[in-house]
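Open question from group meeting: does this chain pack into something compact, or does most of it stay loose? Before anyone orders reagents, we agreed to write out a predicted structure and look at it together. Recording both the input and the output here so the notebook holds the full record.
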Amino acid sequence: DLGALSCIARVRLNGKDLGVVWTAPWRIEITDAVLPEGNKLEIKVANHWLNRIIGDEQLPPEQRFTQTNVESKNSKLQPAGLLGPVRIMTID
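Structure tokens returned:
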């Protein structure tokens, strides 16, 4: 269980791709990949596009990654990332 997440994540456990989660509940099955100990969990989380645009507006034009005709100078950054808590759960 990834807890709170915004907005999409790819999950790998011990090198095995377990897929993508993009909606609540932010859970993914790990039974076929989990080891008794020494597990390596990788979670890649994508940010909101609006956050990228807002961030780019803070940079000089030659350093920007995006181009848009949308002005977002007065917009607030959206909560993004793995907000957690991440938990391993058993389901009976």
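Observations to bring back to the group:
The chain has a mean pLDDT of 89.
The chain is about 10% helix and 25% strand.
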